[in-house]
Amino acid sequence: MQATDWLSFAFSFAIVIALLGALLYVMKRLQSGRLLGLPQRRIRVLEMVSVAPRQKLMLVRVKDQDLLLGVTVQQISTLANFPLTEEEVVAESVPRGTPADGTNSLTPLAKRFSEMLKSAQNKDQA
Predict the structure, then answer these.
(1) What pLDDT digit, counting tens, does each position of 2-34 carry?
(2) 65 CB-near residues (< 8 Å, 6+ apart)
(3) Same domain (yes/no): 19, 45
(4) How many independent structural domains does the chain possess?
(5) Is position 12 within any domain?
(6) Residue range(s) defining the domain that contains residue 34
(7) Sign of the CA dihedral running 115, 121, 123, 126
(8) Is residue 60 in some structural domain?
(9) Among the residues of the chain, which ranges form H helices?
(10) Residue 117 belongs to some domain of the structure
């Protein structure tokens, strides 16, 4: 094989790895619903710590409280309840990434794409 064949192979491999990384990122965002602007889930796992091979401590947020749960293979136990403060409740009610005026965060992107499409169509017609 020549050097250009190796370079072509390495470049193609790097592109495939980059595309896989981008796909993984998009799939993770789609799974959480943040990419499509869907509302936040009511139950969220804030943190999880493995204590032993099959035992975990989980901090879970449900409505207006945080729960510390002990999770084993046989059972799930509530270890502590922590009510949310007023600031945390207000922060939870406003989704992350949402502008203060309530408009959709995808609106500027959609406008930009529509302008690009219009300019491309005008170039094609000319």
Answers:
(1) 777 888 899 999 999 999 999 999 888 777 666
(2) 81, 82, 83, 84
(3) no
(4) 2
(5) yes
(6) 1-38
(7) negative
(8) yes
(9) 3-32, 86-93, 107-125
(10) no
SS3 54: coil
Q: Mark whether 33 and 49 lie in a shared domain.
A: no
Which amino acid makes up residue 120?
A: A
Q: What percent of the chain has pLDDT over 90?
A: 35
The pLDDT tens digits for 67-79 are 999 999 999 999 9
Quote the Cα angle for 26-30-31, to 5°: 120
At 2, is the secondary structure helix, strand, or coil? coil
Nearest to 45 by CA among 61, 34, 69: 61
Output the CA angle 13-19-24, nearest 5 degrees.
Answer: 130
